[in-house]
C-alpha cells in the first residue's frame, strides 16, 4: 500500500510520501537508542512539564489537526475534534499521574522475607516500537506514547500508510513540547518492513493495534527475539438488551454504538443479542434509528458519519454483507453501495445471520449490525462467548442479578452495563482471545513497558 493521503470522501490522492530509506531508518533507531539514557535520567517533573507543553500545543492546534484527521481518514469533523481533545486530556492525565503509578511499592514486611528493606520498583526498559492503525490516528498513538514517555522510555511510531501527515505531526509534537529530539519519532514504512525492526537489539518492546494477522506476525518476531509485546487486535463486541432495560434508550445507544467512526472501531457493537420479549420493540426502534443515520461529507456538521477510510475497507465490509445475503440473511436497511464518489457505505442492519455466514464470526469494520433474538440472559452470555474475539461488551439491564451474570460471565476485557464501551485514561483497556493481550491505559498500561524490579536489602 502506498504511503499517501487519499481523501476517502472523494477518492482523490492529495499527497504521497516516500518510505524512509535504510539509512534514515538507522538514523531514527540510533537516535531513539541514544536518547533513552538521557530521558531515563530525567525526573517525572521534567517529563510532566514537557508532556503538558505538548498537550497545550495540541489544544492550540486542535482545529488544524482535526481537519487533517477528517481529510486523511474520513471521520466527521466533530468526532475528529473530540478525538484530538481527548488525546490532549490523556497526555495531561499521565503527566499528572505517572509518578504515582510508578512509585515504589512495599508489598510485604521486610522481615517476612529476611530483609531490612524490600520494595518493588518500576523502571523504563528502552525504546518501544508502536505499530498503530488509521481509525483513531491520534488517540491510538497517544494512549501508548504518553505513558511510555512518562515512564522514561523512548518511542518510535510506525503509523498506518493511509495517515502519513498525522504520523509526521505526532512525530514532531513531543520534541516541540520540550522532550529531547530523539525521544519520539515517526518512521514512514510499509507494513512488511515492521517485523525486521524487532530483530534490532536496540528495540526493546513493541505494541500493536491492528488485525489478527498483523498481530500474529509482530508477536512472532517479538517472541523470537524475547521482547515484550502488547497487542490489541479488534473484536466482534456484543450489545445485549434484556426486558428490564429502557428499550428506547438502548436502541438509541445501539445506533450510536454501530455508526460511531463509521463503524470502524474495535469496540463498536457488532452483534446485538436482544431478549425475545423486547426483540420486536427494539428492532423497530433500532432499524428506524439506523435508517435515519446518513453518511455524508465529513466537514458537513449535519452528517451522521463519514465514508469508510479506504476503498479496500469498503470492499471488505460489503463482501461480508453480500455473503450473508446470498446465504439467506435479510437486510432490514442498507446493504448496498451508493452511487457517487468516495467510499461511503450506508448504516445496515442484518437479521437471519447464521454460523455458515462469514459475518457471524468475522469482524465487520463498517456500519453493519447483526440482530439476534435470545431467550434468556444465560443464552446471551453463551452466544456472546461463541466468538474468537473478546474485547469488550455493552449490556442493558436494570436487574442486578443479570448484571452480575454478565459481568462475571462474558469473556472479554470489559463489560459496560447500561452504557457504551469506551476508553478512559483512568481504566485499563484490552482484550482476551484473538482480541490480543496486555493492557493500555491506567496504571497497568504504563507498567507494561517497565522493568518491574524487586529491590531486597539485608
UniProtKB/TrEMBL annotation:
Residues 3-455 form the Aldehyde dehydrogenase domain. Transmembrane segments: none annotated. Coiled coil: none annotated. GO terms for molecular function: aldehyde dehydrogenase [NAD(P)+] activity; succinate-semialdehyde dehydrogenase (NAD+) activity. InterPro entries: Ald_DH/histidinol_DH, Ald_DH_C, Ald_DH_CS_CYS, Ald_DH_N, AldDh_AldH, Aldehyde_DH_dom, ALDH_GabD1-like, GABD/Sad-like. CDD domains: ALDH_SSADH1_GabD1. Keywords: NADP, Oxidoreductase. The keyword ATP-binding does not apply. Belongs to the aldehyde dehydrogenase family. This is NADP-dependent succinic semialdehyde dehydrogenase.
